[in-house]
Amino acid sequence: MIHPTEHTPAAEHTPAAQRVPAAQDSPAAQHSPAAERTLVAQLAEAVGRTVTVCGWVQTSRLQSVMQFVLVRDHTGTVQVTHRRDGGELEAALDGLSTESAVRITGRVVANPVVKLGGLELLPEAVELLGRAEGPLPIDEQSGPEHRSDWRFLDIRRRPAAQLLFAVQTAFEAGLREYAYAHGCTELHTPKLMGTASESGAEVFKLGYFGGDAYLAQSPQFYKQMAIASGIDRVFEIGPVFRAEPSFTSRHATEFTGVDVELGWTRDVEDVQAFEEGMIAHALGLVAERYGQWIREELGVEVKVPTTPFPRITMADAQQLLRARGWDPEGAKVDLDPEGERLLAAHLQEQTGHEFVFVTHYPASIRPFYHARPADRPDLTLSFDLLWKGLEVTTGAQREHRYEVLTDQAAEKGMSLAPLTDYLNCFRYGCPPHGGFGMGLSRMLMVLLGLSSIREAVFLFRGPNRLTP
C-alpha cells in the first residue's frame, strides 16, 4: 500500500491524542460499534474494529492511485486512506474541501509507516455534514486582527488555541477546588449596578428604564456585603467591565475576574497567604494535566510555585528600582509597566521566584475602602501581585469600621449618598475582612507565554472591537 511521505506540521502533531480519556461504551455502541462517535484519541484502543470518526478535513492528498485525507477532531488527527476504485467512496473523498465537517466510518488499522500515531482509517462510509467554502478567509500568515475577525476558524485550526481552553478549564477547576476546601461559598453578584463599584475607574453607563445603570467594574461591594451577611468566605468567577480606553496587550474592556473575600481576617497577610496557596494549587493541577502538552506546543514550562511568595513594600521597590536607573516620567507613587518588569526580574534573580507581592501602596492611589495602618495613614494595607512582571491581582485588608470608612470616602471627595447601600453594611457589626481580585485572562497570558491578552480569551473585547 502506498502512503504519503510528506505531511504538514499540523498534521504531524497530535497534542491531545493521549490526553482525552476513552469514553465508556454505551449499550447502543455495544450493539452497533459504528453508530457511536469515536474520538481520534481513542483509536489506539480500537485497532481492528469499525468505528465512526467525526471531525474536519485538515488536508487532502489526492493521488492517481491513492487518496489520503487527514481528519481532525479536538483530540487529534487521523489519516483516512483509500485506494481508488471508481466507486462512491472515491467520489466522496475527492469532493471534500478543507475544513468541511465530515463523519467517516471505517476500520482502524495499525500501520507503522503512518506518522500520525501509526494508525490509519480505511473508510467504509463518508458523509459530508457541512461543506466549507473555499478559499478559507485566514491562513498561517494572517495577522492578529484578521484572525480575530475569524476567531472560530482560528481556534479550530490551531492546536495552541485549543490548548488555551483546556488549560483555562483546569486552572479554574483548581481555583474552585482550593476555595471549596478552604470554606468558601461561591457567589453570583449582579452586573447591573445603580452606582459605580470602584472610585476613579472608567465605567460603562447605560439607560435603565428612564434612569441610569452601570456595568459592574467589580463585585467588590457585593462580596463585602456577603461578609456582612454572615457568609464567612466567598468567591466569584464572573464577567467584569472596564471602560478604559487602553490599547495595550494586557487590557480588555470585558474580562473574567476571580474575586475572593475572606471574613474575620487578622491582617492582610491572611489574604496574601490564601491567594498564594490558591494559585499554587491551581498551577499544580494545570501542570499535572497539561504540563507536557504546554511544553510541546508552546515551549513553556509550567512551574508550580513554592509558598510564601516574596514580598516587598512599594517604598522599598521604588528605592531599589531608582538605584538601578528606573526614572519614569510622572510616576512618583506607583510603578509603571517597565518598573513592574524590572522589579520582578530582579527579585526572580535574587529569589528564584516568578511571583512577588508589592505591598503598602500609598492611600492617594488606592480606593477609599482599603484599610490603613494605625501609625501610617498615608499608606494602605494593600498589595498587587506581579507574575513575571505583569500585575495579575490587586488585594487589601478592607476598612470595616463605619466611621473610618465614611471619613476616608469624604477625604477622597466622594459623595456618600450613592454609597448608602454599601455603607449600611458596616453600621451593624461587620467583621474585619479582606480580599483580592484576579484577572483570569492575564493569568493565562503569563502561564502560556502569550504575547497579548486577546490570545487568552475566547472572544476579545477592546475599545475598537465588539465583534464577532
Describe the structure.
With 468 residues, the protein is α+β, with helices and mostly antiparallel strands. It has 2 domains: 9-130, Nucleic acid-binding proteins (OB fold (Dihydrolipoamide Acetyltransferase, E2P), Beta Barrel), CATH 2.40.50; 148-456, Bira Bifunctional Protein, Domain 2 (BirA Bifunctional Protein, domain 2, 2-Layer Sandwich), CATH 3.30.930. It has 13 helices and 16 strands. The strands form 3 sheets. Strands 6-10-11-16-15-14-13-12 form an 8-stranded mixed sheet, sandwiched between helices. It has a 5-stranded mixed β-barrel with strand order 1-2-3-5-4. Strand 14 (382-387) and strand 15 (390-397) form a beta hairpin. The longest helix is centred in the middle third of the chain and has 31 residues, at 268-298. The two termini are 46 Å apart.
At a glance:
The protein is of the alpha+beta class and 468 residues long. Helix content is 30%, strand content 24%. The protein has 13 helices and 16 strands.
Give the % helix.
25-40%
Instruction: Give the C-level CATH assignment of the largest domain.
Output: Alpha Beta
What is the number of helical segments per DSSP (H or I, 4+ residues)?
13
Number of strands: 16
Please trace the helix and strand order, writing H or E for each element.
HHEEEHEEHHHEEEEHEEHEHHEEEHHEH
The structure class reads alpha+beta
